[in-house]
Design goal:
about 40% helix, alpha+beta, 2 domains, Ubiquitin-like (UB roll), 7 helices, elongated, 6 strands
Length: about 230
Amino acid sequence: MTGPQVLEENVVWGPTGLIPTVVQDAADGRVLMVAYVDAEALAATLASGEVHFHSRSRDRLWRKGETSGNVLRLRGIAIDCDGDALLIQADPVGPTCHRGRRSCFDPSAAAPEITPPPATPLPGQGFEWLETLWATIEGRATADPAASYTARLIAGGVDVPARKVVEEATEVLMAAKDDGVADETSRAATRDALTGEVADLLYHTLVLLLERGLPPSAVMARLRERHKA
């Protein structure tokens, strides 16, 4: 990422004193939003560590999250080869989109997402697929409880998914202990059982977060904060 002095010296401001800016989640590169920055907003971002923009509708400095609390914590800024566009990497605290979605580019009923052809998976643990699971849970939250297990959990209030989290956590413990004493002939079975129990725990934890109205991005932000400590 570009240093502050080099950045400010090389920005090519547009005719109205603005430069288009793309914001990415620093954790996984997901594009969160696109907005405009002027010299005042850039200086405020660099000085405060929280992303600022220029609001074209209100014609003033705008700190992202100033009313919602869903701020963007600066991780780095890059400038493109022509100097006329910025790329900001940030840690989002809560959903970035004003509609309550993680990204302004997340699909909606009015603007369905176009699914690209399958790509070669990137190396790693595959955590990005949890976004798909979260979107599925969100979609089923308003379904008929008689036809959806997820909807039934949420309709039961906080106690129902919370108790399932406790139940699944206990089963993870038992499966882990079984795997710990397994010999080579039974290890495949105990490892499979542990995998299934952890999957159940992750799913029910996400359901509990949705029931409480707490986005997983807030949890991820907390983990990143603790990682820096």
